[in-house]
């Protein structure tokens, strides 16, 4: 594996791909957010299992589906990062990740979690940007609809 590919497939991405966070179909679901990329076939369902009240996300979120290691790991990081956060905090986390991936954040503008920084290799592979952002974009749409 070349050095560039090793940078893309960091240990964090490998770990989240092999053992993703809350990768299961829950028995009870109130909302399913569909993240699908028809070009490459990545397809994940994000499950919200309790209503959002008082601007709090449910205690647990889950996801299930299939896709490349980048999209699966990125979806896992998303679920782990926003679980239990307030609506505003979740929106901020999603915004920071998307701005980081799209190189809209200046270096050291924010202190980003190591799990976000693990996706910095995507910057060298623009064709993998959609893989890294697929679930994040769909979650952003959902959160914005709840904030209206």
Order of helices and strands: HHEEEHHHH
Give start-end ranges of low-pLDDT stretches: none
Do you know the CATH architecture?
Answer: Alpha-Beta Complex
Helix content: 40-55%
| Strand numbers in spatial order across the main sheet | 1-2-3
Strand content: 5-15%
- The outline comes out as globular
Cα separation of the termini: 46 Å
List the total number of helices.
6
CATH topology: Sufe protein. Chain: A
- Tell me the total number of β-strands: 3
Question: Given this structure, which CATH class is correct?
Answer: Alpha Beta
Please state the structural category.
Answer: alpha+beta
Largest sheet: 3 strands, antiparallel
Quaternary state of the chains: single chain
Specify Rg, calculated over alpha carbons.
Answer: 15 Å
**How many structural domains can be distinguished in the coordinates?**
1
Mean pLDDT: 85
Q: Could you characterize what this model shows?
A:
This protein has 148 residues and is an alpha+beta fold. It has one domain: Sufe protein. Chain: A. Helices cover 44% and strands 12% of the residues. It has helices at 3-8, 11-18, 69-82, 87-101, 114-117, 129-146, and strands at 31-36, 43-48, 61-66. Strands 1-2-3 form a three-stranded antiparallel beta sheet, covered by helices on one side. Helix 2 crosses helix 3 (69-82) and helix 4 runs antiparallel to helix 6. The chain is globular and about 40 Å long. It starts with a helix and ends with a helix. The mean pLDDT is 85.
Please give a quick description of this structure.
The chain is an alpha+beta fold.
